[in-house]
Amino acid sequence: MSLKVSRGILAASLLTVLAGCNAGNPGAALGGGADKPAATPAVAPVVQGICPTIALRDGTAYYRTYAKGGKDDPAKVVYQASLADTTRSCSRDETQLTINVMVQGRLVAGPLGKAGTLKMPIRVAVTDGEKVVYTELTQFEASLADAAQASQFLFTKQVTVPGDVSGLTKVQVGFDEGPYKTK
């Protein structure tokens, strides 16, 4: 038997013995001490539920502003913003699920752009199956310090929904200039 295999077996055996010592009453595993009742926790633990998935809503990852009369003309773009990475964290109490939504984005100047601040309409919507349980449009501001360089931004939003949502719950984020519509 090789030395590496022997060390592995020895390590696994030692871990098994140590795990037995920590289970239940450690004094009993060493042959001493009487069985003692386990301490009950002062506060009942809350089992966290599933944190809903988060995604960019189809077709809403880009936002452009144009100079007057230049709608859809690439030469008249003032700013272009894009959303890229998303993440979320959740906490739950007896009646509510709180979702902390975070989206990383990028802002660049177009051919007619300059340094400044841009307001962008970002919508966060939470659906449970086909039912919309939360939707809000936020006018988010991001700044561009230099028109020659892109700027990154982080959009965060705390969303509270009923705690009884199902495993079908989803969070969708994206640029949106109108009312939220389900598919």
Features:
single chain, mainly beta
What would you call the structural class? mainly beta
Largest sheet: number of strands, sense, barrel closure: 4 strands, mixed
Tell me the span between the first and last alpha carbons.
63 Å
Cross-sheet strand order for the largest sheet: 1-8-5-6
Shape: elongated
Strand content: over 45%
Give me the Rg, rounded. 27 Å
- The sequence of SSEs as H and E is HHEEEEEEEE
Total helices: the number is 2
> What is the percent of helical residues?
10-25%
Low-confidence stretches: 13-30, 43-47
The tally of beta strands, per DSSP, is: 8
Q: Roughly what is the average pLDDT, rounded to an integer?
A: 80
Task: Summarize this entry quickly.
This protein is mainly beta and 183 residues long. It contains two helices and eight strands, in the order ααββββββββ.
Q: Can you offer a commentary on this structure?
A:
- Helices cover 13% and strands 46% of the residues.
- The protein is built from 2 helices and 8 strands; from the N terminus they run ααββββββββ.
- A 4-stranded mixed β-sheet has the order 1-8-5-6, with no helix packed on it. A 4-stranded antiparallel β-sheet has the order 2-3-4-7, with no helix packed on it.
- The termini are far apart.
